[in-house]
Design brief:
The protein is built from 13 helices and seven strands. With about 300 residues, it is an alpha/beta fold. This is N-acetylglucosaminylphosphatidylinositol deacetylase.
Amino acid sequence: MSPSSFIALGFAISAVFIFWTLSATTSSPFARSFPRLYNKRICLLIAHPDDEAMFFAPTVLALTKPELGNHLKILCLSSGDADGLGHIRKKELQRSAVHLGLRNESDVLIIDDPTRFPDSMSATWSESDVSSLLASAFAPEMGANSNPRKRTRGDKPPVATIDVLLTFDRGGISNHPNHRSLYHGAVHFIRALMKDKPGFTCPVTLYTLATTNILRKYIGVLDAPVTMARGALGALSETVRGSTRASKGDAPTRLLFVSSVGEWMTAQSAMVKAHQSQMVWFRYGWITLGRYMAVNDLKREKI
């Protein structure tokens, strides 16, 4: 490659970083065009301690901003005990969650049930087990429907103690079977919640984190301008169609969170300082090059 080519490449990368730095601020025209959630009870459903930092950090950092009035909790379905470090990783998750903006460590619930939810690259968790756990945690009235003597009437609206559920999509970002199981379990939960409830609106909105191709997955912050431009065009398209949400209480079709430079560094710090047991050499590559450390785009699932 000639010297002029190196210079051109350097200018291009610098331009991307400048664009990202200026446009990721909350006051930028790009950021103002992205839908937000206000005053919501939100659950982030993850499979392992460190998922919240490696994949969902931009989402957690954005949704826990005090001015939005949200209350975000994390439900983790394993202690990450594949290497016998579960007791350590539980504490690491709690520290990371608070570092990323959760109110306190009690907002993190960790399920340690290796029989149903083993931390394994080869284990697919039962969608009914995931759904049942979500129901017991957030929709206790669903249990009454399985008891004929206590069955709730079909003319009563479904009730839940959360408004928004966030998790992986069917691709699971890394194709990890535990990640993919959460998607299927969450969908099963929503369907069960709405069973025999025709005509009612589901009280829980499910958003899933979009899996990208491997190139976009590892270009880090260089993916930010592309994703932000697509998000802005999508918002403009909805405006033209007249389908934008008129009030803060309505559920957007998509959510896009792009971290600022400071937030990106906070996400890296959550991994390095809180998840010390997981910081082997290749994780440093992920927190530097992984686009999910800076960019999250989520889709509302229509079920």
